[in-house]
Amino acid sequence: MIAAGAAVVLAAGTTGWAVWSNAQLQPDAATTPAQTTVEVVSGDMVAETLASGKLQYSFTLPVIAGTGGTVTEVPPVGATVAAGGILYRIDTRPVILMRGAAPAWRDFSADMTRGEDVRQLEANLKGFGFFAGEPDDRFTRDTSAAVRAWQKSLGVEQTGTVSRSTLLFTDRDLRVSALDTRVGAQVGEGTPLYSATGTEQTVLLNMKSTDRGLAVPGTPVTVALPTGTDVEGVVGTVDDPVEQPAADGTGTSVVIPVRIDLLSQEALGGLALSTVTVRFASTLQEDALTVPIDALLPLDDDTFAVELPGRAADGGRALVPVAVGAFASGNVAISGDGIEVGTDVVVPRR
């Protein structure tokens, strides 16, 4: 990934007010470039810092065998497994994905003690349509009956109990990214079967340490896709600075790893693992009066003016000195006598 780089210039100056006649200041008509006018507008001066990043799936998770035996089913690469779906089968017995943050650390049966893992199991069975009550932390006869009904739907033995090796709790759906085994393979407990990721993509990038202030969690950003589409996002996490080899191969540089969360996965349109450009916006000046940069005319090394049509005593053009503020995106903030929203200023004709 390429570190971010900023292209923002600040300038300021003050001066008095003066007017010169068009005849005194303008060159011969034969050498005067074609000109037109634009209006002074009001708004925040916003600069953009660009960073190159890459779309990545949100996390990785190894799916390992909960018991030994023959692999009789694994999903294909790219498949998505949702809550209630089959992660794999060993000796034809399915292992099921359930929603939850706590791992399955013990078997579920009527003689077990209370626990939040029971509530988690019941919440899933309720979501699947097999548990009618309000999930709690007790494994009761109602829980066992719901388990048997669920087991019947899976086509497995209806014991009313659940082995921890037949469940995997996660807080989101999984996407199969790479297989480590195949159907027919003999595996032992703990053998990696495949690698999985989240189904949502984020953007990972490295920012220059000098741009660290732009990457604040929750800050809105715009992500430009290689398809020409923009997707809105927010800064998710900002990690501690790390060293990486410098781009020119001489020494190292310090970068800040940043994760960008996207507000719309659908906007990606199936795009995956692609290089994107992230635009960080920063406000340089609020409620500024702005004109295009090429409206500025240098009077000396420190003083600028803008040209106003019809303001000279003879009705021609007049130069009005202005104080110059922030520059951004081809525009500049100005202030001066007679400068207000809607004032026409002269610019070269494009």
Keywords:
9% helix, conserved putative lor/sdh protein from methanococcus maripaludis s2 fold, PGBDSf, 3 domains, 24 strands, five-stranded mixed beta sheet, 3 helices, Elongation Factor Tu (Ef-tu), domain 3, mainly beta, six-stranded antiparallel barrel, Muramoyl-pentapeptide Carboxypeptidase, domain 1, disordered N terminus, 350 residues
Q: Can you walk through the features of this model?
A:
There is one protein chain. The protein has 3 helices and 24 strands. The chain is mainly β and 350 residues long. The radius of gyration is 32 Å and the shape is elongated. The protein folds into 3 domains: 5-48 and 284-348, Beta Barrel (conserved putative lor/sdh protein from methanococcus maripaludis s2 fold); 49-57 and 200-278, Efflux pump adaptor protein, beta barrel domain (Elongation Factor Tu (Ef-tu), domain 3, Beta Barrel); 60-197, Orthogonal Bundle (Muramoyl-pentapeptide Carboxypeptidase, domain 1), CATH 1.10.101.10.
Number of helices: 3
Distance, first to last CA:
37 Å
Low-pLDDT stretches: 1-32
CATH superfamily descriptor of the largest domain:
PGBD-like superfamily/PGBD
Strand arrangement within the widest β-sheet reads: 4-14-18-16-15-19
Chain-averaged pLDDT: 87
User: How many beta strands in the DSSP annotation?
Assistant: 24
Number of structural domains? 3
- Amount of helix: under 10%
- Beta-sheet strand percentage? 35-45%
Silhouette: elongated
Oligomer: single chain
CATH C-level category of the largest domain: Mainly Alpha
Largest sheet: 6 strands, antiparallel, barrel
**Structural class computed from helices and strand pairing:** mainly beta
Rg from alpha-carbon coordinates: 32 Å
Order of helical and strand elements: EEHEEEEEEEHHEEEEEEEEEEEEEEE
According to CATH, the fold-level topology of the largest domain is: Muramoyl-pentapeptide Carboxypeptidase, domain 1
Q: Give the second-level CATH assignment, the architecture of the largest domain.
A: Orthogonal Bundle
